[in-house]
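Input structure tokens:
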């Protein structure tokens, strides 16, 4: 994607990309960032499972790199 030069694109493609960016920016502008995020139950369950997997990995392998990294970060 970094090799794409806007000036080399056709006029039709430029207009399409501009329209998509404007539509996306309007969606972001309409979000009320003062309200807390709403997470559905399925997402909460998935994150809980991932958390349990991470904890299990650390218990089985004390040299687990992810846990080691965060232990160092929290100590610093």
């Amino acid at each position: 994607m970094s090799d794409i030069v806007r000036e080399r694109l056709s006029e039709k493609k430029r207009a399409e990309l501009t329209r998509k960016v404007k539509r996306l920016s309007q969606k972001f502008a309409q979000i009320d960032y003062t309200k807390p995020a709403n997470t559905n139950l399925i997402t909460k369950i998935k994150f809980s499972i991932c958390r349990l997997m991470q904890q299990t990995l650390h218990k089985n392998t004390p040299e687990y790199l992810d846990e080691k990294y965060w232990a160092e970060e929290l100590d610093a």
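The chain has three helices and no strands. The radius of gyration is 22 Å.
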